[in-house]
Amino acid sequence: MDAKTIYAQSSDIKSRTYLEYRKDMKKKAIAELEVFDWLKSKLSILYPNQKIKLSKFGGDTFLWFLRKGGVTREPDYRAKVDDKDFDIEFQYADKIDLNYFDFAVSKITKKNRKTGKREPHQDRKILYILKYNHSFAFFDPEWILKNGHIGFVDAWRKDAYGVPKAKFLEVLRTDSTLKIVVEMIDIKNYILNFQHDFIGITKEKLSYLLQQVIDEQKIVRIIPNDLDSFFKVCFILDNLNKVPQNINLWLVYLLSFISDKNTTEDLAKIIYCVDFLYSKTDLKQNELKILVEKINLCFKLLQNFEQKDGSFKSSTDLSPMDETRYALFSVNLLEDLTQDLIFYYKVDELNPVTKIYQNISYINNTYKLIKK
Length: 372
Fold this sequence. Notes:
Blueprint: H1 17-46, E1 52-56, E2 77-81, E3 84-93, E4 100-104, H2 105-108, E5 109-111, E6 118-120, E7 124-130, E8 135-139, H3 141-147, E9 149-153, E10 158-164, H4 165-169, E11 173-174, H5 178-217, H6 227-239, H7 247-255, H8 264-278, H9 285-305, H10 320-345, H11 363-371
Parallel strand pairs: 3-7
Antiparallel strand pairs: 1-2, 2-3, 4-10, 5-6, 7-8, 8-11, 9-10
């Protein structure tokens, strides 16, 4: 395979915005998927003696990120109570140090084309969860229209409906069954942040290496003829927002590195590169087949490395903490790849992600381990 010569200066390396974006979007996905079972149970109480059907919007093809960035306008849940269908928009807050509870204008109202006035949506309800005291509110958009007003929200950089804190607290109801849901959301968010440190750690290591080389030679020449070199090249290209020539050949070649001899560190590097290359190209059927097979193999390898104490073990040369971070980073990207493949390529050989980190068997122990 022809290797591409890459020239880069360390000062040109920027943060990987696509991964950061997906990490931020995954926080909402964690909450949406953890709340699902609780919400279904709660609807049965709110609508007694009625037939309840609840689904996550998109079903098995639910995707929490968009390839070009941004936020989807689709509702969070679809509900059917007897013969009545409606959407459910979900929001949550961690704590109560807010003067107003804000809601996106488009989620609450739509403009009447004849009158020009904004009218509340009639096809949806709003679910709001306040995490710190395990409380929730479930109401119609009309309530926001009556009790809030439109104003500019700095954090969102746009107008939104704001409901005064005192007024909003009146409709919140404490629910003890939310405690376990909120705890799992917090656990998974902690894991999300922990595994993502792999990027920062790598950036520091690679920036230092590049600086040393640049000081001596001014330029860097890296040839991807082994996994370590391949990883460095992909990391540099990714952070420079550039792509290699013959990207599909790179991807297929990279997939050949995956085997039962890999360590967790190997898998983290390989899957990072796969994720980078995959997102920049379209796959042919034979390439798609290989990728799906390798993703399933990666899941099996990681499952074999997992220990009951929550750690991962693949080598005596790696520390339990490092191994666990590598494994969690790999699982994180494999889940992203899985849903992207199901959404865009309609593959059915992969298990849809119904809960973030569903592939971590001893998640509570993993959390305790990395929290030490």
